[in-house]
Write a structure and sequence with these properties.
The complex is a heterodimer of chains A (about 90) and B (about 600).
Chain A: E1 2-5, E2 16-18, E3 25-26, H1 27-37, H2 50-56, E4 58-61, E5 64-66, E6 71-72, E7 77-81
Parallel strand pairs in A: 1-7
Antiparallel strand pairs in A: 1-2, 3-6, 4-5, 4-7
Chain B: E1 8-12, E2 17-21, H1 25-31, H2 34-45, E3 59-62, E4 77-82, E5 89-94, H3 98-105, E6 109-113, E7 120-125, E8 128-133, H4 142-152, E9 158-161, H5 164-167, E10 175-178, E11 182-185, H6 190-196, E12 199-205, H7 215-232, H8 234-239, H9 245-251, H10 272-278, E13 280-284, E14 294-299, E15 307-310, H11 314-322, H12 329-342, H13 346-361, H14 380-392, H15 396-400, H16 403-411, H17 413-416, H18 436-444, H19 482-499, H20 513-524, H21 530-550, H22 562-566, H23 581-592, H24 602-608
Parallel strand pairs in B: 1-6, 7-12
Antiparallel strand pairs in B: 1-2, 3-4, 3-6, 4-5, 7-8, 9-10, 9-12, 10-11, 13-14, 14-15
The chains are: A alpha+beta (about 90), B alpha+beta (about 600).
Chain lengths: ~90, ~600
């Protein structure tokens, strides 16, 4: 799986990182992997719900915003972005 | 009555008369405050014959029970009048510190009628209300005027003041508020209503404590919740509203080239993240707000330096930036500053310029019509020049000052195809092709294409509100249940605008409805349950609807512009986006208890006990 870190998340990891997955996992699990792998992500270790996720970061795939229980797999290309609420 | 002053100021500018009224307790109980009480006054005191720019129109400004208390992000007020831009119910909600001073001076709201025979301002303070001469600042911009007004009154006062655009009755004129922070009651042309009354400003400064039912419990409860609020809104506060630009561009919510573009790589250059990395010179907060989403920017080099002022919000970046293809953050900051000075709504201004750029591109008018300005996409200097012309109503600016609908009607039928507005109000920078709740909300909101009427897109992106049955975020393209989802959020936003509390307290569920109900009890001593709370929101929403129905609107007006109904954009993640508005409206009217023409049924009106 490829994860693109965009905007301020570029400071957390390289712009594009590869995560090896042996089977499909949820966004919840992926977040836990990223937290364990990158120091800059540890501040998101407390993110457990969709509400909390929506306040801090967005996982995005093919035009769709992903929720905690959404499934991702080895072939996915994801983007990690700032959340969005606008004015 | 706890949490209120129990007093409304009535000012007749023609008679130079000031009276204090005491509304019935039942008015407060039924409508709470803010947009609720204001809508009731406007409904009762204006009629279909009321000219929006005539002396008989009312400008109604109301605070809420939360205003001036320890409730976070509640230093707000709601302004209403029959709108010169749409001809319908006009409203604008604004933060800052004006409302807090006003309420601490001893009042819940103010109703302004008549037209002064010379420019005046209102000075509202602990010892009363005065009508004073504003001739020395008539013709001056909002900042210069505010400085003079503070010299004449109190340096710590907050000033709600129009610029040249409001004085010249521009349909897209707003009301800048200059105090702790610069905020603008931008939408629906309310600045022109002030201008039509020869009312340059309303200056407020008050220090009297507001009586609360249980101040100690309120403060303790908020103190306990504050760490959670700060954590939930940390990212939002850090990058401001414009922090969403990158994300919105990716998902197809960002307005690009008058809403016809799909993706635009240059959006990154004008985002809140770029702002934070380059020109941000501090954050600013409205009174009592722990979020501090306001930006302060500083340009020290380049053609627009020096510039040290309030920074642009997401909506401004979207409509002056994306919609006009301006990819230079410095130009957007300069445009934002000009709009604040002239008192122009940055959203309607950006949208109208984007519309004019497309008309120019199509050859509907040429350089001879624009006084030699090349109104091409991305032309920053041209955009800045045009803003000045709009504010001064010079040349083509005179036409553009009336917004895109009136401009399209003037320049010809072909232009109606790409004039993007609902009921005359240009949309905020959220695309209804990306969020179907936004389509429904734009079509049915009283003031036109308003995303704040439902503020529903965050609930299609991750937020939940289980208290009202939104247990999980709803798919943006889901049709089944969309009407109920949107209507519930419209009712919730209506009651939040009555209390008044900022929508951004919902970010990350920083504040939930149970918190709000508890605080309402601590402030007013009145215990209301969830059903009464939501019913109040529904009552307010329906009252605004009835206001517009009385003016002749119905199903025929609940439409979206051709650009949203015919143009399906292409690009990554963008497919099948045309909102099924007909189906959505059928469901929506049915859920609301309105007839097939979108009119609340007599049963619904009785049930809500309106007007």
């Amino acid at each position: 799986m490829i994860v693109h870190f965009l905007g301020p998340f570029e400071l957390i990891a390289e712009k594009e990182v590869q995560i090896k997955l042996e089977h499909s996992i949820t966004i919840r699990k992926l977040l836990a992997i990223l937290v364990s792998k990158y120091d800059g992500m540890t501040k998101y270790s407390g993110v457990k719900t969709n509400d909390e996720l929506s306040a801090h970061l967005v996982f995005f795939r093919d035009g769709k915003i992903l929720m905690m229980s959404d499934i991702v797999d080895e072939n996915d290309v994801l983007q990690v972005l700032l959340p969005a609420t606008g004015g | 009555m706890f949490g209120y002053r129990g007093k409304m100021i009535r000012v007749d500018l023609a008679e130079r008369k000031i009276e204090i009224e005491e509304p019935n307790v039942s008015t407060y109980e039924k409508y709470i405050g803010g947009s609720g009480i204001g809508a009731k006054y406007l409904y009762d005191e204006t009629c279909p014959e009321t000219d929006p720019l005539g002396p008989e129109n009312r400008l109604v400004v109301v605070t809420g029970p939360f205003t001036g208390t320890a409730v976070p992000s509640a230093g707000r007020h709601h302004l209403m009048a029959r709108s010169p831009l749409t001809g319908l119910f006009g409203e604008s909600n604004v933060g800052g510190s004006w409302a807090v001073h006003f309420k601490k001076a001893g009042y819940d709201g103010i109703i302004i009628q008549g037209r002064a025979d010379q420019p005046v301002y209102l000075w509202i303070h602990n010892d009363g209300v005065e009508i004073r001469d504003a001739s020395p600042v008539w013709g001056k911009d909002s900042y210069d005027s505010a400085a003079w007004l503070k010299d004449e009154t109190v340096s710590k006062a907050t000033v709600a003041v129009i610029g040249q655009a409001g004085e010249r009755l521009a349909g897209i004129a707003g009301i800048p508020h200059i105090g702790l922070i610069v905020r603008q009651a931008a939408r629906a042309g309310l600045g022109a209503v002030m201008g039509s009354k020869n009312l340059k400003a309303m200056v407020s400064y008050g220090t009297k404590e507001i009586p609360l039912a249980n101040r100690e419990f309120l403060n303790q409860d908020i103190k306990k919740l504050m760490p959670h609020i700060r954590k939930a809104t940390e990212t939002f506060g850090k990058f401001g509203t414009a922090g969403g630009v990158d994300n919105y561009e990716k998902i197809g919510n960002f307005p690009i080239q008058n809403w016809r573009g799909s993706h635009w790589k240059n959006a990154e250059k004008i985002s809140g993240v770029t702002m934070q990395k380059t020109i941000l010179n501090g954050r600013r907060a409205c009174f009592g707000c722990p979020i501090a989403c306001g930006r302060h920017i500083q340009l020290t080099e380049g053609p627009y330096a020096p510039l040290d002022c309030a920074g642009p919000e997401y909506e401004t970046v979207g409509l002056i930036g994306g919609a006009c293809m301006i990819d230079d953050l410095a130009v957007i900051c300069k445009a934002n500053d000009l709009c604040n000075r002239y008192g122009l709504d940055t959203m309607s201004t950006g949208a109208t310029i984007a519309f004019a750029m497309e008309a120019y591109e199509r050859g509907i008018f040429g350089i001879a019509d624009t006084d030699g300005i090349e109104l091409t996409w991305g032309n920053g200097p041209a955009l800045l020049e045009i803003i000045g012309k709009i504010a001064r109503r010079e040349g083509i600016g005179d036409l553009m000052a009336e917004g895109s609908r009136k401009m399209a009607l003037m320049i010809g039928e072909k232009a109606l195809e790409f004039a993007v507005h609902v009921k005359g109000l240009e949309p905020s920078a959220h695309d209804p092709r990306r969020f179907f709740s936004q389509a429904l909300s734009y079509a049915t909101a009283a003031r036109g294409a308003c995303h704040n009427a439902s503020w529903s897109h965050p609930y299609e992106m991750g937020l939940s509100m289980p208290e009202i049955g939104i247990n999980a975020p709803q798919d943006p393209y889901q049709i089944e249940g969309k009407a109920e989802f949107t209507a519930k959020l419209q009712d919730l936003m209506s009651v939040m605008d009555a209390l008044i509390i900022c929508r951004f307290t919902q970010v990350g569920r920083a504040v939930n409805i149970n918190n709000i109900l508890k605080w309402f009890y601590f402030i007013t001593g009145r215990e209301i349950d969830l059903e009464t709370f939501m019913r109040t929101g529904e009552r307010i929403f329906n009252l605004k609807r009835l206001y517009n129905i009385r003016l002749g609107t119905s199903r025929k007006d609940d439409i979206l512009p051709p650009r949203f109904m015919k143009m399906n954009r292409s690009g990554e993640g963008l497919t099948n986006q045309i909102p099924p508005l007909g189906r959505l409206l059928v469901d929506y009217y049915s859920y609301r208890g309105w007839n097939e023409d979108g009119i609340p049924t007599p049963e619904k009106i009785r049930e809500l006990d309106i007007p």
